[in-house]
Amino acid sequence: MVLSGKKIVSKTTTVGIVVGDYVVLAADKRATAGSLVAHKRVKKIIRIDDYIAMTISGLVADAEIIAEQARFIARKYKLELGRPIKVSALASNLSIILNAYLRMSPYIVQLLLGGYDDNGPHLFYIDLFGSLSEEKYMATGSGSPTAFGVLEEEYRSDLSLDEAKELAFKAVSAATKRDGFSGEGVDIVVIGPNTYVEETKLFKRSIIAK
Questions:
Q1: Assigned CATH topology for domain 2-202
Q2: pLDDT, tens digit (0-9, with 9 covering 90-100), for 74-89
Q3: 11 closest CA partner among 142, 126, 203
Q4: Which of 12, 14, 32, 146 is catalytic?
Q5: Whole-number Å distance between alpha carbons of 33 and 71
Q6: Is 189:25 a contact under the CB 8 Å cutoff?
Q7: Domain spans in the chain, listed from the N-terminal domain onward
Q8: pLDDT tens across 40-51, in order?
Q9: Model pTM score
């Protein structure tokens, strides 16, 4: 996507947390083109399959292409084998795609792939080189240093689901206070056994009284 000659880049903050039987994904809602705030209601968490979703940061057009490829792979797998693709298998496929295009026309993206399958909840980090790692918590984007600080301080493996959702919101929210490329609000997705729930928390505007 191009606006006034500039590619829209989702310099952003996204967070993923695994807790119990659930994966919690969170992302801010601002998209920028250079110093311009291009959109204030962007969805940076994309549903891929019934119980798999992906957060995106980087070039919006590149991220959309990767998301469509992920959906195609998941659908093809289900049609051919009659069962949903495992989260790890989809993550490996995306890793191969990103690495294959690295030397020709790289996709400028950072991805968090989260989901639930018969092996439980999973969270994978995939960068533009195709590097792949499974994590218990992770942050991506321009606001990730601040978000990581919050996660490192407060993450515990025994967090309740409500505590994990609040931590994800807090991490993204903290990043928006230090990173001008992140803002407007936070989308949150919870994935677990027979569960896929989305919610949005918009930031309240400050009212300055004269």
A1: Glutamine Phosphoribosylpyrophosphate, subunit 1, domain 1 (3.60.20)
A2: 999 999 999 999 999 9
A3: 142
A4: 12
A5: 27
A6: yes
A7: 2-202
A8: 567 889 999 999
A9: 0.85
